[in-house]
Amino acid sequence: MDAGGSGWADCTLEDHQAKAELNASYITSAPEEFLTAVARLVAGETETCVQFEAEPTAYRWVFYREGEDIWIYVLKLRDGSDHDNRGTGI
Hints:
The protein has one helix spanning 30-42, and strands at residues 2-5, 8-14, 19-25, 47-53, 58-66, 69-77, 88-89. By secondary structure, the protein is mostly beta strands.
């Protein structure tokens, strides 16, 4: 995560199969909530999520854990109050 400009953060999520780039307002507590979601996974939770607001778009990060494996889905939503099924994966 990189502070891209006044009030915005550029985020890159990458593994050996895919790469996603997005931006989000860091005026919210999204960076702290992201770290909290990761800490919950490390502590043993099997599912957690965090949302980044990109005004009006939102990016919802959904984390799933099964044993040692973790899956991350990033959904792009037209509005932050939308249900997961209204989002498109990035």
